[in-house]
Design goal:
With 346 residues, the protein is mostly helical. The chain contains 12 helices and 2 strands; from the N terminus they run ααααααβαααααβα. The chain has one domain. The termini are far apart. It comes from Pseudazoarcus pumilus.
Length: 346
């Protein structure tokens, strides 16, 4: 009688699992599939590690600290006009007093009472006061230039990170107008996002009051929902900046990951900045200029986070295998280190 050979191990595993599975078809566990899953996880971890590492390198190579200082300086001249435009847009729906109060409450939560009061005083003194066509036009012209100045500098900083610059020979006046219009687009986007944020805040506040009386547990859910919506609005703001300002052709999907990373860093970082400013004697050290210094410090640290988010967006864009395509008014600039001997020979 011929001897029966034992089935292979994989067949025994199939039969054993099949008899215990309780289903018509046997359950199969493939060690190869498990290995593939581990390799995919490892590849993802390596990919994101390289993105973070290379984005930090790019952030440092592009002198982010210097550009953050420039942004902080220009913000002093642009902050009041930006707030005026935002208050005007929100005032069309909620009334100017309610809009101003909500904005300054937000600024007070972020920057502190002293800095928020300094901004409020600057806003009150910067509003066009005189009547008549010519004074009004001049006032709004100054408001437009002031509001877009910081975003023009922000565009320059983002172009450095993306490695693009204005095309040589391109019409300088047209380029200036185009950049200012793009900057105004971002200002209007900020006003719209603040408008949506205030609308949601009013709706959630009303829902919280109703929920506390009916279902107390619902208040916690609505509070968490408000936090998530606020984070989503911050993501939308950074996505708009990363897509509109750089002279690079980008889609919304190209900037979404970077905007999320920047929004998360900003949400955590602002509490760290507020904690640092609250436990240091910065305001008292500089006396009457203490509030201005607080604004500079807050904007400086926030600009560092913004520029890192831009570097993260660019590195992630390249690691996906995408190619940087400049707009018609820009060209790609290659940064190279030239040896001292080559400089001596030239």
């Amino acid at each position: 009688m011929p001897s029966r050979t034992s089935p292979p191990a994989r067949h025994r595993l199939r039969a054993t699992l099949g008899s215990c599975s309780g289903y018509g078809e046997p359950a199969v566990i493939s060690l190869g599939n498990i290995g593939d899953a581990f390799r995919r996880v490892r590849d993802e971890v390596v990919f994101w590690y390289r993105v973070v590492r290379d984005s930090i390198k790019l952030w440092l190579q592009c002198n982010a600290f210097s550009y953050a200082g420039s942004l902080a300086f220009y913000t002093l001249f642009s902050l009041a006009p930006v707030v005026i435009i935002a208050v005007t847009l929100m005032g069309l729906v909620f009334g100017e007093d309610a809009a101003r109060g909500e904005i300054f409450n937000q600024l007070q939560d972020i920057m502190g009472a002293g800095a928020a009061q300094a901004i409020e005083n600057a806003v009150l003194q910067s509003r066009p006061q005189e009547s008549g066509l010519m004074p009004t036009l001049l006032g709004f012209g100054a408001l437009f230039l002031g509001a877009t100045t910081v975003f023009a500098q922000m565009q320059f900083s983002l172009n450095v990170i993306w490695g693009v610059a204005a095309k040589p020979g391109y019409n300088g006046i047209l380029l200036y107008i185009k950049n200012r219009v793009l900057s105004l687009t971002v200002v209007l986007a900020i006003g719209f996002i603040l408008l949506v944020s205030l609308s949601i805040g009013v709706a959630v506040s009303a829902a919280l009051k109703a929920a506390e009386n009916l279902v107390p547990a619902a208040a916690t859910v609505l509070g968490g929902l408000e936090v998530m919506i606020s984070l989503a609005l911050v993501v939308a703001l950074f996505a708009t900046i990363f897509k509109v300002l750089p002279d690079v052709v980008l889609g919304w999907r190209d900037v979404l990951i970077g905007a999320i990373v920047t929004a998360v860093l900003f949400s955590f970082g602002r509490f760290g900045i507020a904690l640092y400013l609250a436990h240091t004697a910065t305001a008292s050290t500089y006396g009457a200029a203490g509030s201005v210094v607080l604004i500079l410090l807050w904007v400086y640290y926030s600009s560092l986070l913004l520029l890192y988010g831009a570097a993260f967006t660019k590195v992630h864009f390249e690691h996906r295998g995408a190619t940087i395509l400049p707009r018609n008014s820009a060209v790609v600039v290659r940064r190279e280190l030239i040896a001292r001997e080559e400089l001596a020979q030239s």
